[in-house]
Design goal:
Blueprint (H helix, E strand, L loop, with lengths): L34 H10 L7 E5 L3 H4 L8 H4 L9 E4 L1 H7 L7 E5 L1 E2 L12 E2 L3 H6 L4 E6 L6 H18 L3 E5 L9 H14 L3 E4 L5 H7 L4 E4 L6 H13 L4 E3 L2 H4 L4 H14 L3 H12 L1
Parallel strand pairs: 1-2, 1-10, 2-3, 3-6, 6-7, 7-8, 8-9, 9-10
Antiparallel strand pairs: 4-5
Helix pairs in contact: 7-8, 9-11, 9-12, 11-12
Length: 292
């Protein structure tokens, strides 16, 4: 094990220097991957913009009937034209999403906790690689709890999924979890995102924070920013804009879309920020024009 004594605190993130191993592929850190991996990543990240609008509606796997997701069959399908990727459980996908939908699939493969638990950090791999293949998943999503009681087991889950994904050319999405006792600082996110990337995750989902551009620069794979708790539509679009400006490869606006009073219109506004270069103010005006 490396000696922690005398380690220099990192300062130079080379923010003005583009990622040096990009090659001719549009996804960060993926140039040396095989054809199958690149095909799946191309189903997630737009080839022209290199970015993605991910939509998570996997909240029910530990929260049950979440506000805004009481009827998956009603709420979700109308969003298909405006989001690039569904992030969901196999049960929700099989029961409520038409197989004809063209969206990419980020399949939630870990589970085991619920809102009735005091500690949500103990999960297990609940979906095997064979079912991920049957679902035609473009990546497998694993919740990881860096700095929490369940860190070791969640990193073991991540390693198992990455190893299985490498055998069958399916990328792994490492999801940085934040709990009530965990940091939400750039120091923490630099550590957590880097750990997941160095373990082999091809995509990392994390949170926006101060000095986010440094977090992105230090992580050799794309970071998708989680929307987190429900914000006002204006604030959520500002979060999306700041994330993209900070170097995020996309956003995952779950609650900030499905708990909006106008989810379809909100999804369209988020898409304008991610793929069309709208500012947050322009996107909010676009949203206002749609709903009036």
């Amino acid at each position: 094990m490396a000696d922690k004594e005398g380690l220099k605190t990192a300062k130079d993130y080379g923010l003005d220097t583009p990622f040096q191993a990009q090659g001719d592929f549009h996804v960060k850190g993926a140039n040396n991957l095989d054809w199958g991996m690149k095909k799946h990543l191309s189903n997630i990240f737009d080839a022209k913009t290199g970015k993605t609008v991910m939509f998570a509606f996997d909240h029910g796997y530990f929260m049950g009937s979440t506000a805004g997701l009481e009827r998956l069959d009603i709420v979700i399908p109308p969003l298909a034209d405006y989001v690039d990727v569904w992030m969901a459980t196999r049960g929700a996908l099989r029961s409520c999403i038409p197989p004809s939908a063209k969206n990419g699939v980020a399949l939630r493969v870990t589970s085991g906790s619920s809102m009735l638990d005091d500690d949500l950090s103990h999960e297990t791999v609940a979906v095997d690689i064979e079912d991920a293949i049957r679902m035609n998943a473009d990546c497998m999503a694993v919740q990881t709890f860096i700095g929490a009681d369940g860190q070791l087991s969640s990193l073991e889950n991540l390693s198992r999924v990455i190893n299985a994904g490498l055998r069958y050319s399916i990328p792994t999405l490492g999801v940085v979890a934040v709990g009530k006792d965990m940091e939400r600082t750039d120091r923490f996110f630099k550590l957590a995102t880097r750990i997941l990337a160095e373990m082999g995750a091809q995509i990392v989902k994390s949170y926006y924070c101060d000095h986010f551009d440094e977090v992105v620069a230090a992580c050799p794979v794309p970071i998708v920013v989680a929307g987190g708790k429900k914000l006002s539509e204006e604030d959520a679009l500002t979060l999306a804009y700041n994330s993209i400006q900070g170097g995020a490869a996309g956003v995952d606006m779950g609650r900030n879309i499905f708990q909006s009073e106008h989810p379809v219109e909100m999804a369209q506004a988020v898409r304008k920020v991610v793929h069309e270069g709208f500012t947050d103010k322009e996107a909010y005006q676009f949203y206002q024009d749609l709903i009036h």
